[in-house]
Design goal:
By secondary structure, the protein is α+β, with helices and mostly antiparallel strands. The chain has one domain (about 5-109). The chain is about 35% helix and about 35% strand. The protein is built from 3 helices and 5 strands, in the order αβββαβαβ. It has a 5-stranded antiparallel sheet with strand order 3-2-1-5-4.
Length: about 110
């Protein structure tokens, strides 16, 4: 479970960026299934310069979330992102289990 302190740190930094006039997006893990690196409620704040605080995953998933967050800052449209590996795909690549994570990305106004 994501701690309240972690969430407050992410939201506090997002607020500071907004107060400084930066464009900001917030990404939140809203669904997990199976193996997932971060629990539901995990957050990542991204500013329009690509700075970030928090985490929704790690690795290539986080990179994709940052890319979509920057697009959301630009166009103002929220995104619902799905990432996952089926159990069958997981066994094919030598992993013990599959997993899914769904991340909601929105521009902070």
């Amino acid at each position: 479970m994501t701690s309240v302190a972690d969430t407050l740190d992410v939201l506090d930094q997002a607020g500071k960026w907004r107060a400084a006039g930066k464009g900001v997006a917030l990404a939140t893990v809203i669904v997990t299934w199976g193996s997932s690196p971060r629990p539901v409620g995990s957050r990542l704040a991204i500013d329009d310069g690509g700075n970030m605080v928090g985490s929704v995953s790690g690795g290539c998933i986080e990179g994709a979330v940052v890319k979509e967050a920057l697009a959301a800052i630009s166009d103002g449209k929220p995104r619902l992102l799905d990432f996952g590996v089926t159990d069958e795909q997981a066994w094919d690549v030598g992993l013990a289990c599959g997993g899914k994570v769904q991340v909601f990305v929105e521009k902070v106004e």
